[in-house]
Amino acid sequence: MAYIIVVGNEKGGSGKSTTCMHVATALARSGFRVGALDLDLRQRTFGRYVENRAAFAEKSGLTLPIPDMRDLPDVEGAALQPGENAYDHRLSAAVAALDATSDFIIIDCPGSHTRLSQLAHSLADTLITPMNDSFIDFDLLARIDPETNKIKGPSIYSEMVWQARQLRAQAGLKPIDWIVLRNRLGAQQMHNKKKVGKALEELSRRIGFRVVPGFSERVIFRELFPRGLTLLDLKDVGVDNLNISNVAARQELRDLMRALNLPGVDVQF
Known about the structure:
This is Chromosome partitioning protein. InterPro entries: DNA_Partitioning_ATPase (IPR050678), MipZ (IPR015223), P-loop_NTPase (IPR027417). Helix 4 packs across helix 6 (156-170). The protein is globular. The chain is built from 9 helices and 9 strands. It has helices spanning 16-29, 45-60, 86-99, 115-123, 135-138, 156-170, 190-207, 219-224, 244-260; strands spanning 3-7, 34-38, 68-70, 104-108, 126-132, 142-144, 151-154, 177-183, 210-213.
C-alpha cells in the first residue's frame, strides 16, 4: 500500500502547498512514484503548482519529475451506499486509484475545516502541520491564556486530529506520526521565537506531535511557484552557483526530509 502523507492546517498562508511540492519533488527525485491530491477545491494552489511545473517542463524541453496529480472523480447518486457521503466516496476512490501506481501519496488539505479534510486526516500515515512561527498561528493547536501564555486546552483542529487517531485505532491501523513544522522562522524577534518554541514543546508532550524546523521566509519560494520549480530544480534550469540563501534553503529541505523519517527514504540530495 502507498504511504500517505497529509499536509493540513486550518489557517491559510502557512506554506502547505510549498511543503507539499518540495516533499513530493524530493521523493520523486529519490526514485519513488508520487501521487498527489489537492483537496482545496476552490483555490487549488498545490494543483496549480503541479500544472505550472508540467507546463514549464514542456515549454523548456526539460525532463522534471512531476507528481501524478489527480482530481477527485465524480460520483453518481446511484453509486453511493445508503447513508454514504459523496465526498467520502470521491476521496476513497481517488486514493484507491493512486494506491495502485504510487509509493507515496501526498494530500494537501484546505485552510478550513471540511468533510474532505477530516477524512484525509484519518488516512494519514504522516501528518505535517505547517505553522507560521507566532502565537497567532499557535492558536491553531491550542488555546492559551493571553496574560500568562499558559496552555488552557487543545484547539478544534487538535481535537480533529485526535478523532482521526481514534478512527485509525479502531480500524487497527498504525498511529499517525504527527509533525508540526515551524515555518517562517526569522532571525528577528528571538525572544518571541523562544516563547513559541517552549510552548510547542510543552504542548507536544500533552497531545503527541513532533516539532520540526521548516522553511525560513525567503523570496526564492515566491519566484519558484510560477514555473512550478523547487529548490531541487535550480541546477536543471541553469543556476549552478547557488547563493547563500539558496544553499541554506536546500539544507532546510534536507533537514526536513530526514526529520520526516519516511520508510525507505535515504536523503542524498
